[in-house]
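Exercise 7.
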Amino acid sequence: MKVLVILGHPNPGESFNRAIVETACRTLREMGHEPVLRDLYAEKFDPVMPMGEEKLPIEELPESVRREIDAVREADGFVIVHPNWWGTPPAILKGWLDRVFRAGFAYSFSANGVVSNFTEKRAQVFTTSNTPRDVELEVYHDPLENFWKTIVFGLVGSRDFGRRNFESIIMSSPEERAAWLTEVEAIVKKRFAE
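Solution. The predicted structure, written as tokens, is:
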């Protein structure tokens, strides 16, 4: 399996997000899969869609966007890792979605409604936050769960989806983080089992 691993964190060297990505990639390789890492900040992916780009056919898009579309097309699944910023992914990741998971590629419209084009692709999202879980659920209603499960992967049709949020990062101990990375390994093994 080829698995596209997307990291959306501006400080990868010291972040728990980087540790998640490294654990996921190592686990995928150990399973015999091919992880394809896209570190959006390191690659300086431009999240801003220029005026009119949404109407262009894929072959007329900038090479950087076509390269991402090709990686998505070739992938059997996704691992997406990012922090929770204001209840959303960082802008660089949201812009990546805007430019890459585009109408006519990830989904399209027909007389009968939306046609989902990623029904065979698996998806695992790992997020991190500093908000305690009870506050995230009771006050904010976990907007990232709705965003990824319903809005993104629900629309593109991924039937094999999971998300795990790790919190509170700022209050966590090295022991808690080590246990979380063991959980990442187990989740990846389950999600991407043959």
